[in-house]
UniProtKB/TrEMBL annotation:
Keywords in alphabetical order: Membrane, Transmembrane, Transmembrane helix
Source organism of the structure: Rhodocytophaga aerolata
UniProt-listed Gene3D superfamilies: Clc chloride channel
Main location: membrane
Taxonomic lineage of the native organism: Bacteria, Pseudomonadati, Bacteroidota, Cytophagia, Cytophagales
Descriptive protein name: Chloride channel protein
Membrane topology of the entry: Multi-pass membrane protein
Amino acid sequence: MAGILSGVMYAPLTAVFLIAEITQGYNLIIPLMIVSAVSYVIVRRIEAFSMDTRELARKGICLPITVI
């Protein structure tokens, strides 16, 4: 769940804390961090824009892009 959330929304910390809170699995924080970080890096290499900013980029609205 954390991997999908951090990849789709480009929000790895949100994914880690949200999933830890929902599942009450605080002993899984380190694995959640690893999965979220890997997912975020892979998706950033494939897609430059998140699902929120993709439509703005298609319309030509200037967005700052950070490259990993």
